[in-house]
Structures are given as C-alpha cells and as structure tokens.
Amino acid sequence: MTTEITQEEITQEEITRNTRKEMTRKATSRSVASKATGWLKGQYPLFILIGLLILASLASPAFLSIQNLTNLVLQLSVIGIVVLAELIVVISGGIDISVGSVLGLAAVLSAGLFQGSNVFVAVLVALAVGAVLGSINGFLVAFRNIDAFIVTLGMLALARGLVYAYTQGAPITPQDPTFPVLGSATIAGFPVVGLFWIGAIAAMAFLLRRTVFGRRVFAVGSNRQAAYSAGTPVRTTLLAVYVLAGLLAGLGGFLLTSRVGAGTPTAGLNFELDAIAAVVIGGARLNGGYGKVFGAVVGTIIFGVITNLLVLLNVSTFYQDALKGALILLAVLLATAGRKGAPQAH
Predict the structure, then answer these.
(1) Which domain holds residue 257?
(2) For residue 287, how many other CB atoms are within 10 A of its CB?
C-alpha cells in the first residue's frame, strides 16, 4: 500500500513539474514575441531605409557601383558627425541650429590660421573653435536660462558672419600638402573619414547608454525639474552637452576641409537643417528625453541616399530641395506613425 501511494505521489509531482515547465515555456515564448513585436514597431526608419535602398538600386544602376558607394560614405561621414552632435542636444531637451555654422568657422580657421602649415595644429584649432562656441551656447542656455533656439540662432548668424568676413568669400587653401591626404585616404577601400564617423558613432552610443553622464542627459531631457530634484547637476550637464556638440562640429569642420582640400565660405551651410531632419527621421523627439544613436545613423543614411539618388537621376537643382523636403516629410510621417504612446524616456 505504501509503495502504491508513493508511486502516485511521484506521478503527481511529475505531472505538476511538467505543467509548470510548459507554463514557463509559453510565458517565455509570449515574452519573446512581445519584445520582438515591440522592437519591430520601433524600426520604421529601418524599414524606410531598406525600401529606399531597393528603390535607389532599381532607379539607377550606378547607385550600387563602388565609386558611388564610396562617394556616399564620404558625403555621409561629415554630416553624420554633425547629426550625432544634434542628437545629444535634442535628447537633452534643446536644439542647436548653429552646428553648421560652427562647423564652417572651424573649417576655415583650421585651414587659415598659421597658414594651415601643420595638420595636427589644424585639428587642435578646429576642436578649440568648436569647444569655445559650444561652451558659449551651453553657458547661455544652462546658466542664463535663455531659450536654446534663440541662443543658437544668434550663434548661427555670428559664426556664419565670421566665416564670410575671414574668407572674404574666397576658399582658403592650407599650405601643408598632407592636409587633403586624410580626406582622400582609404583602408582596404573604405574611406578613412568614414572610420572617423564609425568611431564617433561607437563613442556616442557608449556615452549615452553606458555612462552616468548619458543617463543624466536623458533625465534632463525628460523632465528638467524632476532631474534637478533628484540631485542631477542639470546646468553642468547641459553645458557639457553643448560643448560636446561643438567639439563634434569642430571635428566635422576639419574633416570637411581635409576632404575638399580647402576651407570654403559655404562649408556647413544648411547642415543644421539636414541634421535636425535626420535626427527626427531617426525617431528622436524634439521635446527631449528620447533618442537613439542607431536611429540617428539610419536617419542620416536615409537623408544621404535621397540626396544621392536625386543627383544620380539628374533631377534639376531647382527641384531637388522641394523633392527632398517632400520625401523627408513623408519619411517623418511614416517613422512617427508607429510611435504613438511610446515612452518618453530612453
């Protein structure tokens, strides 16, 4: 009798254990499916990019040529670095419409100061220009509580005016013959300028996702008052954000000068508009607190492919801006269609 009861108990325990395993398996499957569905809903920009790449390859056979893809990487690299600068500012709850002009001033001064006789000095000049102008923006926004749009609008006019005054409307060619080497060099066929962009992407992703500073940026962008109440150094965080944006713009200025071989008075013109468009297409919210480096990169590529395709199709320059604007509006509409009700925090 005892043996029979024990056997029944063992059988019951096995049934209970198997039932629990099955319930756990189903719960895990539902969780994985839910996460996968949630991830797919947030990847509208990626789907747009895939569709755009297919369209571009069908519309122009030259699109997938090695030469065109290399040129595309060169075009994307500088604006891609500027997009990263805009991204961190937008996440913090601000906006920087001066990044293009800051890049332009860094570009011409890196080529012109000290006659552009040393590449290393030129890099330092470009970074210093970006850091100084970024710190001015950050100080006025963080410590004087002036609206970021107004501050950076003023900086846009100031920096662009200095570019025109310094160049007198003519390109400035640096004396160092090695200056354009970096902009045209390749490693295994891949442009070195593109490697700078990739490095900046990796650094920004690490900074925002893996550091205390990154969490502070998201906290400030989500709710500045709540972040302050929680002990977050809001002012110094904002100052650091704009300084970092300036440094990235300065780096972009040097790389652009190296690629072109001269500091031109139109360097960085309208880059701020392209950067903001790429950031928004990539899923960032202009009211702050949300944004991803991956999305910004996808937005940059979308924007670059649109521009590149219009050139390959020989679309008149009179229509390019209008078509580009319409396509951007469509891309933003599609990219934001699946984000209603998404959380504001990262």
Answers:
(1) 43-337
(2) 11
